[in-house]
Specification:
- The chain is an alpha/beta fold and 338 residues long.
- The protein folds into 3 domains: 24-62; 64-180, no CATH class; 223-338.
- The protein is 25% helix and 21% strand.
- The strands form 2 sheets. It has a 10-stranded parallel beta sheet with strand order 1-2-3-4-5-6-8-10-11-12.
- It is globular.
């Protein structure tokens, strides 16, 4: 008896499904970890576990844990805690390259965050990002969550980024961030001059340093021999700056206001770098008024003999200089490329 056309078609379809299933199973773990999983959010990484039996537990061995705000839409904070706790409980990789939490964190769940950081430290984490999305005006919010002191046990860190948190008191017995190359701090309450000095003392090899909206910084002293990139943005209370950064290559300075009676601006800050001969790139940003100020001395820029790139952003900058036909005198940039 010959098989019916329908049964033949069904067998063919089953064979095609098995063939596609085999293709998924043939992908190597290293390819999945390096090329597929890093480009999708953790939520979809877990969803991918249904594609193949081989993939079912791959996410538990991921060296990168990225908990994005897109994964937690419309979820209450306690539910977010449960999800992250569950993932960490099942995580079986021996090392951790990246641990990133971008969620609604408040002071009441600081104990959970401390536990997460301790977990990351035990895994030898290299990159930590803690981004708090709770707005200060959120009803019921009392204060920013303080950074867990367990963070200072992460002595394998290479990159650290923190947003909208409170800076803690640094423990006296910490080893320090001896491998840290990049540090970015934004909206950090309690980051004053003394705390900054203590932090920099723990980071002897830092190369990239950025501050944004840190309103308690006043008199900055930055002495980091390996620093190559420095960004100071919208830290409006800064009054003075002293630097010892012989390797500095790039400077980014941003302000949100400028008035003629304002004693300090990104231009004043720029003058503090005039003796650093290694600077090759300068970015100045001000969206709050006439820019540059009428009394700005362009010869300050002429001190940067090796300058290759100069970027200036401001509301009235283009309009003002389109009307001026004469170029500033005594300012030359022999190495300027753009």
């Amino acid at each position: 008896m010959f098989p019916s056309p329908i049964s033949v078609d069904l067998r063919r379809m089953a064979g095609k499904r098995e063939k596609h299933r085999d293709r998924l199973n043939q992908l190597t773990d290293s390819f999945i970890y390096s090329e597929i999983l890093p480009i999708i959010s953790f939520k979809y990484v877990v969803c991918c576990s249904i594609l193949s039996s081989k993939w079912r537990f791959l996410w538990t061995k991921m060296p990168r844990l990225n908990f994005s705000s897109h994964d937690f839409q419309n979820l209450q904070p306690h539910k977010i805690e449960e999800i992250i706790d569950g993932v960490l409980h099942l995580h079986s990789a021996s090392t951790l390259e990246i641990f990133q939490v971008e969620a609604f964190l408040d002071d009441y769940n600081s104990a959970c965050v401390c536990k997460w950081i301790e977990f990351a430290a035990l895994k030898g984490v290299k990159n930590i990002t803690l981004c708090n999305l709770v707005n200060m005006n959120t009803p019921g919010r009392k204060r920013r969550m303080e950074v867990p002191s367990s963070l200072f046990a992460c002595n394998t860190l290479i990159k650290l980024e923190m947003v909208d948190l409170a800076f803690p008191k640094i423990p006296t017995n910490v080893e320090g961030f001896h491998y840290l190359k990049t540090c970015y701090l934004s909206h950090i309450l309690g980051l004053n001059d003394e705390a900054l000095q203590q932090l920099l003392g723990l980071c002897p090899l830092v190369e990239n340093l950025g501050f944004e909206y840190c309103g308690q910084l006043r008199n900055l002293i930055i002495s980091t021999p390996n620093l190559r990139y420095l960004s100071i943005e919208y830290c409006l209370k800064v009054k003075s700056l002293k630097t010892e950064c012989p390797q500095l290559r790039e400077i980014k300075l941003a302000n949100s206001i400028f008035r003629e009676d304002h004693p300090w601006s990104e231009f004043k800050l720029l003058e503090c770098f005039s003796a650093v001969e290694s600077v090759k790139s300068i970015t100045l940003i001000n969206y709050g008024g006439t820019y540059p100020p009428p009394n700005f001395n362009f010869t300050v820029l002429g001190c940067f003999l090796h300058l290759e790139e100069l970027t200036i952003h401001g509301e009235c900058f283009e309009e003002r200089f389109m009307e001026e036909e004469e170029e500033p005198e005594d300012v030359t940039f022999p190495n300027l490329k753009k």
